[in-house]
Amino acid sequence: MPQKTVNQTTDNLYSESQDNAFLGYPSSPGLISTADPDFEEPSEPVAKISTPEKPAAKPSPKTKPKRSNLETLLVGLDLGTNTTCVQIAELGAETVEASALIPTVVGYARPGILPDVLPGNQTTFFGEEAIAHKLHLDLVQPLKDGVIDDLEAVRDFLGYVKERIGDSEDTEYRAVIGTPANADPQAKENIRLAITQLFDKVILIPEPFLAALGSRKESTNVDPITNSIFVDIGAGSSDVCLIQGYYPSSDDQISFAFAGDAVDRIIQKSILGKYPDCRISLSKCREIKETYSFVNGSKNSVLAPVMIHGKVKRLEVADAIDTACSALLEKIYQAVRTLIMRADPDSIPSLLENIIITGGGSMIPGFDEGLESLLLEEGFEGCKVTCVGESYKSRVAAGALIAAHQADERQWQNLLR
Fold this sequence. Notes:
CATH superfamily of the largest domain: ATPase, nucleotide binding domain
Largest sheet: 6 strands, mixed
Distance between the termini: 18 Å
CATH topology of the largest domain: Nucleotidyltransferase, domain 5
Number of helices: 11
Strand order of the largest sheet: 5-4-3-11-12-20
CATH architecture of the largest domain: 2-Layer Sandwich
Radius of gyration: 22 Å
Structural class: alpha+beta
Shape: flat
Strand content: 15-25%
Helix content: 25-40%
Number of strands: 20
CATH class of the largest domain: Alpha Beta
């Protein structure tokens, strides 16, 4: 083994043939990402992804000959807009061998940087190291609204992730990767293109379903796979999924590009409207959100320290935070309400007791109570909304690793190596 360095619910769905099942759960045809046994890049050109100018990346390695007598390493990957979580384990192992959280950012050295300014005169940095040297780098976030926006940068980033996992000709690397709910075919194809020649086999699964899988051990209420609504609020997208013992159909999932990044933008616009000369950045607004966020007007005053013209000023930002977080709450409420109305009526009483919020948005104080209150006002009696807490960061990756262990051989897509 290589060295690892990273740290329906109707009867007709249940009667579907095993060919349409996934991980032991009945599913609808066409929902699981599939490919020919030997996946090849499409002969027709793929829609171009926007790519800013930057130093040329190292060429991808050439296709290597077929290997035999391989050991298998499983990778659970949550490729997030702001943060990526990866977990690895050997095939059949009950424990996670290694886990890491990595900021999803690539930094390319700016033209004209003098020698010895950047460590080792490197031209490309990743994650925490890229952020640490951002003064001398052009930072690129490869994902936007939860999907790949810069194919070259995401390949560079995933190459770095793969280096941390390890690389051995004696090991087959299989990855289960989370995708936004209802991700379109192009978004899935871009993921496959990004990991080709890095991993050997892949399965793409909606993130809320993986979050539910990763939450089973921690659940103290109804088993989340049996009957739940999972709300995954990330940086680029929010995904809401109805899970009732089978692999969710497209009607069971709602995804929209309004999440943490949108909250940051609303906060910035509101603060600039009140203090037009403060020149507050999006990153500072994200910091304010993460430090002071709340919903439903639960705070009358929030004074945030902001650097203005070289001096620290304390700005009143409560209105900005309240407006932004309340907008997110309303979006989530409408999606959850829609999925409740689509559920089998007999399942709704227990479903209402098992609404689970994960992702970075779950860290907004009072968000669970705010959603619960809106649902009760609508007449959904007995509802209980739970935020998973700090452990949200690893739920999707943990679920991806579980899925990797449970998947049948026929469900893996082969990638070019």
